[in-house]
What we know:
By secondary structure, the protein is of the alpha+beta class.
Amino acid sequence: MKRNNHFTLIEVVVALAILAGSVVALTTLMMSSQKRLAAAWEKERQWVMVQQAAEYCMLQDGDPADPPPEVFYYPGYHAKYTVDTSPFMDDNDLNDESALYQLDCRTIELIRDSDGQTVEQLKIDCPHYDED
């Protein structure tokens, strides 16, 4: 007796279904990883922008203004710079004679122009020297 080595229609359909499921799962995985990669790249780009704004502000004498567009040229974003007394200082420490200087909390914010939302923020505590 000779045996026929052909696949049945049901076996072919099951194999194609398994193959199609694998392709869909792989495509979904690739799309998800591509979205995560794009989000990570954008987050890194925003962090570099806020670091450059911080470098500009820290190199200026006195209380610098926001970085000008010719120095900080990133379309769709701008940097905002503020100086406050550091929230980590106790008011009693400022009146104590052993406290040599007060700390300023310098905040650099990266703001997206399209919606005005702060997307990245960097706070730096720096010594405040009185001019007198």
